[in-house]
Amino acid sequence: MNAPVARRRFAEQVMVMLGREPRRPALQTEQAIQVHEIKRARPKAEVRAAIEQAHAEPRGHKWRNRRWAVLIAANLLFTISYALDIQVLEGALTASRFIGFHLIDLNSALQVMLAHKHVITNLVIGTLTVATGWMLLGGRTFCSWVCPYHFAAEWAEKLHLWLAARKLVSDQQMNRGLRAVFWLVFALAALATGYTVFEAISPTGILSRALIYGPGLALLWVAALLLFEVVISRRAWCRYACPIGLTYGVVGILSPVRVKYNLNNCLHEGDCRKVCLVPHVLDTVIKGRATDTEVPLGPDCTRCGLCVDACPTGSLTFDIKGLSRLL
User: Fold this and answer.
1) 199, 206 in Cβ contact below 8 A?
2) CB 302 within 8 A of CB 141
3) Would you state the pLDDT for residue 324?
4) In this predicted structure, what is the pLDDT of residue 87?
5) Nearest in space to 190 (alpha carbons), one of 128, 123, 108
6) What pTM was estimated for this model as a whole?
């Protein structure tokens, strides 16, 4: 691996996570340059035929189904533990205890400590447990594999796409840097007011508590967010506002679990970007953009697996750095 190229790519991926738009790479390895040149010289008719052949093979939803199963099971465990009073998983996603081990959501812990203006020992212990797990798995894995709002937003997105195909709605794009701005605003609000402002409006916390303790009026706010995403801006909360995603993205920057892109096999047909929640992390699949023949996606990737399921050539795969590919 070319070290300068890898360092430059890593820095670019972090900046893209913070809101900067992807740029054409300034540095590429010799191997990547050669592959790009070969692909540019390939006749368009031959490429179209290869794409048609690749699409002839049916693609399943293996990773999506696994992810939905894990997400539903994790949230149901909270509900069942509370309903049956078996004390396996107590609390909610913001703060819980699993068989005696404290688990604190990183963003919630930060909000509480800023509001109280001092470091709380019990929060630190629970936070370190969670931080270690998500550093290994990739921070934003939380978003797609655990967060109940993500699950609801996926179904809202399906409705949005159905309406958009009939030209009944359009997708209004916003500046992704808004998410970093909101992160700072909520942090300053907690510091200034002594109150965890974000926790009051977090759809993740609202849905988690509603599933466990029963519905409340706060669900109207969640419904309003989903309606906004259906009618105005696809996946707006996760893409442009939620500070939880940014917090977990930073935590998972050095995670060994990632989705890896293989330049050699790719036909650049774009199926992966169409299904991706965060298509900016897939900028590398655009023809001529890959910095190397194998490129791990950036830390803003949620590891949802939709691109892996959608790719007709198997150019996107789950991978553990230094170990064999996940099957």
Assistant:
1) no
2) yes
3) 55
4) 81
5) 108
6) 0.91
